[in-house]
């Protein structure tokens, strides 16, 4: 895909930051929330369909669109089946894909240090934790995962996007640029170094289209967002340089 430079208006910057935060919110929740009947009611409900439609309208290109189609296929296939049976299948697939229970059938669990250093609580974990500290991010006590867990890193990007949006809304382009650069650096120095590899493994090993779709949606969005943020940073710097 060819990405062409474009000029973003202040309104477009605000809208992009909000839209990006919503996608990161959706993705982080899918990795953080344990399967439950409540979660399934959401997945089969109108609000979840609306969220997917919103993602398609704003970012639905390439691999992302394929992922969304797979999730929609899962919903169509299992909508009328007994919820407890669907929950059992979703739970089994999630455990196998995200907990690394069997090296023959499971990808390594989605912790950055596992993929970059081959072990839990490595240097990557410390670096990510330090980034959270600099941003003033405090992880909820209910989250028992190490700070470099995929769902938590995606939630950090959500918070960065929201801070960027607030800066644009306040008319502070220089502060917004700072958050854009923070997000770009977090993507480049952490997320994109390992998450695409995990998503590929997750897609290949998933039994349900639900998790195949999540894998494609996540990998495709991160690739797109990495390029988009770089484009926004370049333009914002030029705009600030031209200002008197």
Structure description:
With 244 residues, the chain is mainly α. Helix content is 75%, strand content 0%. The protein has one domain: TorD-like (Orthogonal Bundle), CATH 1.10.3480.10. It has helices at residues 10-32, 37-43, 46-59, 62-78, 83-98, 112-117, 123-135, 150-169, 173-205, 209-242. Helix 1 (10-32) packs antiparallel against helix 10 (209-242) and helix 8 (150-169) runs antiparallel to helix 9 (173-205). The chain is globular and about 60 Å long. The model is unreliable at 1-5 (pLDDT under 50).
Offer a few descriptive terms.
single chain, 244 residues, mainly alpha, TorD-like, 10 helices
SSE blueprint and pairings:
Elements: H1 10-32, H2 37-43, H3 46-59, H4 62-78, H5 83-98, H6 112-117, H7 123-135, H8 150-169, H9 173-205, H10 209-242
Helix pairs in contact: 1-8, 1-10, 3-4, 4-10, 8-9, 9-10
The CATH topology: TorD-like
Calculate the mean pLDDT score and round it.
Answer: 91
CATH architecture descriptor: Orthogonal Bundle
N→C terminal distance: 36 Å
Q: What's a concise summary of this model?
A:
Helix content is 75%, strand content 0%. With 244 residues, the chain is an all-alpha fold. It has a single domain (10-242), classed as Orthogonal Bundle (TorD-like), CATH 1.10.3480.
């Amino acid at each position: 895909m060819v990405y062409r430079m474009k000029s973003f208006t202040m309104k477009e910057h605000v809208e992009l930051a909000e839209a990006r935060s919503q996608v990161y919110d959706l993705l982080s929740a899918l990795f953080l929330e344990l399967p439950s009947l409540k979660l399934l009611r959401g997945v089969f409900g109108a609000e979840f369909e609306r969220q997917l439609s919103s993602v398609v309208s704003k970012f639905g290109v390439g691999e992302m669109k394929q992922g969304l189609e797979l999730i929609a296929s899962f919903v169509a296939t299992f909508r009328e089946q007994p919820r407890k049976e669907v929950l059992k299948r979703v739970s089994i697939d999630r455990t196998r894909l995200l907990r690394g229970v069997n090296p023959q059938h499971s990808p390594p669990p989605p912790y950055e240090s596992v993929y970059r250093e081959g072990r839990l609580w490595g240097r990557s974990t410390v670096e990510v934790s330090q980034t959270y500290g600099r941003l003033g991010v405090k992880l909820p006590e209910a989250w028992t995962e190490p700070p470099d867990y995929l769902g938590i890193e995606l939630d950090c990007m959500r918070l960065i996007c929201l801070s960027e949006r607030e800066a644009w809304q306040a008319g502070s382009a220089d502060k917004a640029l700072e958050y854009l650069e923070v997000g770009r650096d977090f993507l480049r120095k952490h997320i994109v170094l390992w998450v695409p590899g995990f998503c590929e493994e997750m897609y290949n090993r998933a039994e349900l289209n639900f998790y195949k779709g999540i894998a494609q949606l996540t990998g495709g969005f991160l690739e797109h967002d990495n390029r988009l943020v770089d484009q926004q940073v370049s333009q914002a710097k030029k705009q600030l340089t031209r200002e008197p």
